[in-house]
Amino acid sequence: MNKLMLIAATAALALATAPARATDGPVFMGFGSHTPVDVNVVIPKGTVLRHAYDATKATPGKRNPVFEAAARFINSHVGNGMPAGDVASAVVVHGNAIVELTRPEVYAARNNGAANASQAMVEEMLAKGVRFLVCGQAANNQGFSRADLLPGVELAISASSAHALLQAQGYSVNP
To answer: Which domain holds residue 148?
Structure first.
């Protein structure tokens, strides 16, 4: 009986100290690619990671790589064992990247009738809790109103205030 208890205790200890592995796959399918990593920098259980990105550029016909990086942040951590609820990302958007957060008719009017390659990705990310905050100063300068934005996209006074608010909420900023 002591041998059985020793085996059970050893197994329990191994499970408690081993890094967790995700069982439900990536949060985002089709974008935000990641790979498993044999880490030696262990993220302690219970750690919550919040990370903000800054997007300023758009390329018509291509998904925004900064939006994709925000999805990758979530997928890579969940894919390497963190609970999805413990990982969050946000994207502060200004410059010509704002157009990628507009309703289809607004985007088409600004891009010779073209469809927004980032729209489906953005909508899925919004549905799964990623925040997109638009700089109100840049939006005003480019003639965008809050009504022009996709549902769920937030309009801040400025990119600086959006980053300051996110930092106050525990988000680190991507260098």
So the answer is: 2-173
